[in-house]
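Homework-ish question, so no full write-ups if that breaks the rules, but can someone show me the predicted structure for this set?
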Amino acid sequence: MKQDPADTSTGKNRRTFFTQAAAGLGLLALAPGVRLIDMAVGGNDGKNDERAVTGAVRWGMFVDTTKCARGCTDCVDACNMEHGLHGFDRPQTDAQWIRKLELRDDQTGRSTSLPMLCQHCENPPCVDVCPTGASFVREDGIVLVDKHICIGCRYCMLACPYKARSFVHEDLTEQRPHSPRGKGTVESCTFCVHRVDKDRTPACVEACTEAGHGALVFGDLNDDGSAVSAKLRALPSTQVRQDLGLNTGVRYYGI
Amino acid sequence: MRYLVLALMWSLAVAGAGNLNAEVTANSKAAGLQQCVEPTEFMRKNHMELLLHQRDQTMYQGIRTTEHSLVECISCHAEKDPEGNFVAINAKDQFCQSCHVTTAVSIDCFQCHATKPEVAGLSGANFSRSLATTMDVAIAGPGCTGRYRP
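A: Not a homework solution, just the prediction itself:
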């Protein structure tokens, strides 16, 4: 979209231009990280297909490890199915967006079960180190890889303190339409962004809830009325490697 | 000699342009429609621009309108074989591939993107469960699910 020089002559015309641009057409050059979008289209309430995500929302997850059943992999299975992840019988390199960990305190013998996934940091090391800008934080806090510009260097995998990312080593077929995946790119949990954009919860959360565990709660951290905020208010939660100051979007209780 | 080669290339190009009129595949949803989401002439020249624009909007802004999305292209243009199963859009003589072969354009969309529409009735949880069953049978590998990395 070209800006007519006449439009710049007065402030009013400039505003009109920006509003129109944000309303439909010219966002590509501005996004991401530019708040003109917020001004033009307001918050994310009732997000529909046409509306851009905004920083008014920050998606996050609360993990109640006291409810996370040992040996249960419902969340992992749901993730694998949702995104069509499957292994090549190479456990060292097979894609893994969420995994179950069993922690054991040797002194007390107490063991804890928890899912580990991309923590959707506010200050993600993966984004810091990405040489092409493929790793990015979406306005609403979801950390993604733009695989169109990922060159597969895997710096992000080294930088991530949570070992949350996988590299696709094999030619893939039968991908699911909402979850494109391909050889030579890095991938990780997307918080099921295709579902979130349709006002649904991530597959792992849905599976955990359906199974009756209720260990995972997903929602808007910025919204005091959301279920996740209520949990965070009620229970003491921690960020894994809080010392790194990454301000993770995933918080754990009971570890 | 050079003119001969040029003439040959020109004739090939004209023939190729003729092939562009090969139109949509017969057993696709698109075959029953008057025109694409934009006029046909526009789509022939500019579909890649629309896709590129939509791709970035979806990726960075979560705008998931379907009109100019690759998923929608495929759901409309994918052909069904006589058994009623979808054929991959990048298979020989299918909509994307036939034209790109003619114009000698190599597309890498389908290294990552699905080449068939998701079958109706198998969406969401149902699809997941059926896929799980398929995967268990097809792969039967321990790498598939429930791996622990303590």
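Now go work out the reasoning yourself. Hint: Residues 12-21, 121-150 of chain B have pLDDT under 50 and may be disordered.
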